[in-house]
Design a protein that fits this description.
With 459 residues, this protein is of the alpha+beta class. Among the domains are: 138 residues, no CATH class; 88 residues, Chitinase A, domain 3 (Roll), CATH 3.10.50.40. The chain is 55% helix and 12% strand. The protein has 18 helices and ten strands. The strands form three sheets. Strands 7-6-9-8 form a four-stranded antiparallel β-sheet, sandwiched between helices.
Length: 459
């Protein structure tokens, strides 16, 4: 197994702050990029990227976003958060000077957020009104699901739908013909089956299945809404009434969108901030994709050179097959150890376990716990390791099989080599890009700020 490298730098710089993923190790900048005489700055300003300040409050907010209490920041963490913020601003400053180059997927991602903000705001407003009404009449059913169904049904009852009943029946049959997902399939097969879409003729696909007033829905509209649902949570549709439920959902979502636009939901500060952050992330993603990842060579000769530089990186780690046992006390573990040392004791134990459908077998890899695997190799097959005091109790291992570390050929390791090279070269190129941007934009770090020194003094 390849030692885990730092995440792709796009995720580290942009996603970690905009979307709140865990903090990764910062880019190690070159001394030249980091060294710059600091002009007079307020003590609360820890750095400047061009004219943009980064304050201690910004660092605290970033720490809070990652679940780190600001008053517990170590010097290393404080500097890591500061470097992440500096790099983010450096890239953002560059992207604001460039034309926006989003892919179709980027645009769909952005407009998906717009849609969710509108729907959520309008639905929350409707649910709040429904909650007040229920509380007033003493109704205790205040869960979001039941109230959501109620407000949707009330909206549907307030209008008059016209349905193409034969077409609805054909669509219901198409849904019903989809394979049923159950626990007998593997996880990947369940996901594949859940993602399948019903099939109808082209004529049916473009036909209007229902209308109300000036609004209408084709079968294709209905299937597009269905496709947007998470495959794992799609309801089972088998009857014409189920299809009508889908139509009613589509109608109510359209109604909510109109209400949200009438209320100018997207102009509210929280929505403006979320859309700004999303656009900033997509800009950064596109920029880093062009400047870093598009320049990573992935031809076979390049990958072969990377493999040949250190083929042992791709070795199959040594591992041991063991029987695992856990006990509440050391005394119990020692008594069991004596039992296992008797002739045929292990065979008897395994026979009993088989009758009771208990499996004590486990596998240990040197990638996960090299010290424990080394102990297994030291005692050999049939040897006992422990007892050891662990968080799960007193652990005892009996070694059943040992597999020493062995190499992988380039052909066998091809996918691993490609992933490792992509991460390795992406890190190098990203570091070079950020160093260049820091130089060009005049990044200045306020090394003598009392906030940075105070964090160091705490520890």
């Amino acid at each position: 197994m390849i030692p885990r490298r730092t995440r792709p730098w796009l995720t580290f710089v942009a996603l970690c702050l905009v979307c709140g993923s865990a903090l990764a190790a910062p880019v190690k900048h070159s001394p030249v990029a980091a060294r710059r005489a600091a002009p007079a700055m307020p003590d609360s300003v820890l750095a400047r990227v061009g004219k943009q300040p980064i304050t201690w409050t910004d660092v605290q907010a970033a720490a809070t976003r990652f679940g780190v209490k600001p008053d517990t920041l170590t010097p290393k963490q404080a500097r890591e958060f500061l470097d992440v913020l500096v790099d983010q601003k450096a890239i953002t400053a560059q992207t604001t000077r460039l034309p926006r180059l989003w892919t179709a997927r980027d645009s769909a991602d952005y407009h998906g957020l717009v849609d969710r903000l509108e729907l959520d705001a309008a639905l929350d407003s409707a649910l709040a009104i429904e909650r007040v009404a229920r509380v007033a009449r003493g109704d205790t059913a205040l869960d979001k699901m039941s109230m959501g169904v109620a407000v949707r049904d009330a909206a549907v009852k307030a209008v008059r739908f016209t349905y193409d009943e034969p077409l609805i029946a054909r669509v219901a049959a198409a849904f019903d013909s989809l394979p049923k997902v159950d626990g007998s399939q593997g996880a990947l097969e369940q996901l594949r089956m859940a993602g399948m879409l019903p099939h109808v003729s082209h004529a049916d696909s473009v036909s209007v299945i229902a209308f109300v007033g000036n609004d209408h829905w084709t079968v294709a509209d209905l299937f597009a809404d269905w496709k947007r649902l998470n495959p794992l949570y799609r309801p089972r549709v088998t009857t014409p009434d189920h299809v009508k439920d889908l139509i009613h959902n589509a109608f109510y979502e359209r109604l909510l969108r109109r209400q949200a636009r009438a209320q100018h939901v997207l102009e509210q500060p929280a929505a403006v901030r979320m859309l700004h952050d999303k656009a900033e992330f997509l800009d950064m993603q596109a920029y880093v994709g062009r400047e870093v990842y598009a320049h990573i060579a992935q031809d076979s000769l390049t990958l072969r050179r990377h493999y040949d530089a250190d083929p042992h990186v791709f070795d199959v780690a040594a591992h041991a097959v063991v029987l695992r046992f856990a006990f509440e006390s050391e005394a119990e573990a020692l008594n069991f150890k004596v039992r296992l040392m008797r002739p045929l004791a292990v065979d008897t134990l395994l026979a009993e376990a088989k009758r009771e459908h208990v499996d004590y077998t486990g596998s240990l890899s040197a990638d996960d716990d090299s010290a424990l695997v080394a102990r297994c190799f030291a005692v050999g097959v049939g040897g006992l390791v422990g007892p050891d005091d662990t968080s799960q109790g007193w652990r005892m291992l009996r070694v059943q099989k040992l597999e020493p570390r062995k190499g992988r050929s380039f052909a066998d390791a091809a996918q691993m080599v490609q992933r490792d090279w992509y991460d390795h070269e992406g890190e190098r190129l990203m570091r070079a890009l950020l160093d260049r941007l820091r130089r060009e934009q005049g990044v200045v770090i306020h090394e003598t700020s009392s906030h940075l020194r105070a964090a160091a003094q705490k520890h």
